[in-house]
């Protein structure tokens, strides 16, 4: 790619990263808060800006499957199958890390999380910097992930050096994480690449038996301020207490669209002073599995699990 075809904003983002800055970047899932993954000072600033505990590992974003291989010491056949099929896209794989990858990025584990995001501006940016960009979701720790540039500004303000505005995220939920260091591979976090899609390609194990540490799996993640009440599809609507401080959302009709809008709707409910948010859950198939996962974690806060946050 020639630099003259790249937008001014992408060039600026690249320059800031190359000078040790931290930049919020658009992806198809949620906005990430990026730094060059080999720049330890810059990566430290990500943890600081988010108030994120330093032992929570980060995803390294790269431009291609070939670039991803450089960050690993082993590239299992299943990693090759999944990444050639689903990258660029909402899939993160866990593989053994290359020797140069820092403990700071991996949380001290001997594995690394890798992803090629599906957003034209961020792919251009990754090609320009020619290296891996470590990026967690660009929200304060424990808060809902940002799905627009405005959400990042609302959450992090001047804690970030630049926000690369790539419009609203079209998937809206964080990537599917698949641990490729075990056989069969295991889904650690459901997301836009559904279990059905993964099943069609590889034999997949039971995610509940995984011993890999993925703090995003802990309870009370992705939480809005309001109380969240989760309803199954057969729950009678007239049993809900309706007042100006309650709101109802329906995730059962069009789950793909709901996934895209979910974090915006949660943020809006908080802005509008909603105290009780009722959500009709989607069926546990396709993207419905990921929606239920995030909603269940968000609702868990009300069960008194304030300390087990991640983000
Ligand atoms: O869609 C996404 O994945 C977004 C965009 C920005 O790419 N990123 C994102 O990052 O959701 P974050 O940091 O909010 O969530 C990353 C998850 C965490 O739960 C972390 O524990 C897990 O990935 N993770 C990272 N490295 C890991 C590793 N080596 N082993 C197991 N889990 C890992
Ligand atoms: Mg997060």
Question: What would your notes on this structure say?
Answer:
The chain has 311 residues and is an alpha/beta fold. It has two domains: 8-209, DHBP synthase; 227-299, no CATH class. Helices cover 31% and strands 16% of the residues. The chain has ten helices and twelve strands. The strands form two sheets. A nine-stranded mixed beta sheet has the order 7-1-2-6-3-5-4-8-9, sandwiched between helices. α1 packs across α6. The protein is globular, with a radius of gyration of 19 Å. The protein binds threonylcarbamoyladenylate and magnesium ion. The site of threonylcarbamoyladenylate (TXA) has 29 residues, from β4 and β5.
Notable features of this structure?
binds magnesium ion, three-stranded parallel beta sheet, disordered C terminus, 10 helices, globular, DHBP synthase, binds threonylcarbamoyladenylate, alpha/beta, 311 residues, 2 domains, single chain
């Amino acid at each position: 790619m020639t630099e003259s075809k790249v937008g001014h904003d992408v060039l600026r983002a690249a320059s800031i990263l190359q000078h040790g800055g931290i930049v919020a970047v658009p992806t198809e899932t949620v906005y990430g808060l990026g730094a060059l993954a080999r720049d330890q000072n810059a990566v430290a600033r990500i943890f600081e800006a988010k108030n994120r505990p330093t032992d929570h590992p980060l995803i390294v974003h790269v431009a291609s499957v070939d670039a991803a291989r450089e960050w690993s010491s082993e590239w299992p056949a299943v990693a090759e199958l999944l990444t050639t099929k689903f990258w660029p896209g909402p899939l993160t794989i866990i593989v053994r890390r290359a020797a140069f990858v820092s403990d700071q990025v991996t949380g001290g584990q001997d594995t690394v999380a890798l992803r090629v995001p599906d957003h034209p501006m961020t792919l251009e940016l990754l090609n320009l910097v020619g290296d891996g960009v470590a990026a967690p979701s660009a929200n304060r720790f424990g808060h809902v992930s940002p799905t627009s540039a405005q959400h990042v500004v609302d959450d992090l303000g001047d804690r970030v050096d630049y926000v690369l505005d790539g419009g609203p995220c079209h998937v809206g939920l964080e990537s599917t994480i698949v641990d490729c260091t075990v056989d069969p591979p295991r889904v650690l976090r459901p997301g836009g690449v559904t279990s059905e899609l993964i099943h069609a390609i590889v034999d997949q194990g039971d995610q509940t038996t995984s011993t890999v540490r993925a703090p995003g799996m802990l309870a009370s993640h992705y939480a809005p301020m309001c109380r969240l009440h989760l309803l199954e599809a057969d729950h009678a609507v007239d049993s809900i207490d309706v007042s100006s401080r309650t709101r109802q959302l329906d995730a059962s009709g069009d789950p793909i669209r709901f996934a895209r809008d979910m974090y915006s709707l949660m943020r809006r409910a908080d802005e509008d002073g909603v105290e009780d948010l009722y959500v009709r859950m989607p069926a546990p198939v396709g993207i419905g599995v990921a929606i239920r996962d995030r909603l269940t974690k968000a609702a868990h806060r009300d069960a008194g699990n304030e300390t087990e946050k991640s983000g």
